[in-house]
Each structure stands twice: as structure tokens, then as C-alpha cells.
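Quick question: what would this complex look like in 3D?
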Amino acid sequence: QKEVEQDPGPLSVPEGAIVSLNCTYSNSAFQYFMWYRQYSRKGPELLMYTYSSGNKEDGRFTAQVDKSSKYISLFIRDSQPSDSATYLCAMSSSGGYQKVTFGIGTKLQVIP
Amino acid sequence: GAGVSQTPSNKVTEKGKYVELRCDPISGHTALYWYRQSLGQGPEFLIYFQGTGAADDSGLPNDRFFAVRPEGSVSTLKIQRTERGDSAVYLCASSSRDRPYEQYFGPGTRLTVT
């Protein structure tokens, strides 16, 4: 079993829809949770960063962490075609040096 | 440029050859990471540098892989006796000491071993 599980999709939604992306994990030591966006043939780009449980909002993006269920989510409101990319969840147990464990990534397509 | 740069962008080599992949991090970033991303997978940690020293090389798959960062800036990932299974995108990232969770990735080097 992988430490981080993520549905690879693909996920297709119409423009303007609310998108929900999720990951589960097994390592209870994880305390730092990130979401990265990766366009084709590009490096990952950090979208959101959350420490421990709770919610964090940044514009159209909301990250949620439920440590009791070992479940994290990323919500995208008013999705745009430019949001079409692969979304990677990532986790770390350390707040200093960050050895990050990534999910497989979910491929999202927003259809105009 | 302001971002992480990696060279070459693409590298095709024959099985058994030696390759070097270069990473130039963001100026002033003390931490540097190497990851490997195979097709359809997330990035997989290889090695982490804080300054000039490798603080954690637990992700290197075997002794054919080696990385250096002699002056605490540019890093080179070296792969000896390449195998077809080494084909992947090799990503480099860097972060600052005060915001270690913000890892900035380069575009990667796509390595193909024929």
C-alpha cells in the first residue's frame, strides 16, 4: 500500500463547476499538506500549503485537512479551462527540511 | 532568470552510458532537492542538500546514482551505467531556509535511455 493514495482520473468538468480533488494517506506522522499543480511538460507549482487539520482558502481554491480520517481535499470554485492540469497532493512530517511524499496526481480537464 | 533552471531539457543516451544532469536553483535558496517522475506517477524523492552537504540521500535507488553540490548552489545528478528503467523526468527544486515548505521546481530533464 502506498503512503499516499490519489485517484488518477481523468476528471472532466464543465467550465464554472466546483471541482473536488482528494487524497488519503496512511502515515500518521504527516503534518504538512500541500497541493501542487502541474501542466504538461512543466515542473509542479505549489498552490496551497496547510499545517495540521483545518481549512485554508486562497481565491478560488480551498484546501481541507482531516487528520482524524487521514483525508485531504482541494476544492476549486468557478473552474476555468486554464485550471486544466494534473493536481498533485503532497505531504511531509517535518516543518523544517521537507522530504515530500507525493500522490500520483489527478488529471483535470475543464471543458469550455 | 528568477526560477530554477535545469539542463539539458532532454537527454537521450544509450544503455550503459554515463549522464550528468544539472540544476541551478533560485539564488539564495539554501535547500535543493532532486526528484524523479516516471510517466503517470508523482515525483519521487531522491536526495536533499542543505548547503553543500547531502542531508538525506535515502531516495537514491542504488549506487549508480550520485549527486553533488560543491559550492552550495548548482547541483549535478550523476547516473552511471544507465539502464532503460532510469528513463524518467528528473526534477530539481529549491527552497529558502525560512520557508522550507515552498519548494520551487524547475522544468525537469527528460532522460531517455535506449
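Answer marked as accepted. The CA atoms of residues 23 and 40 of chain B lie 23 Å apart.
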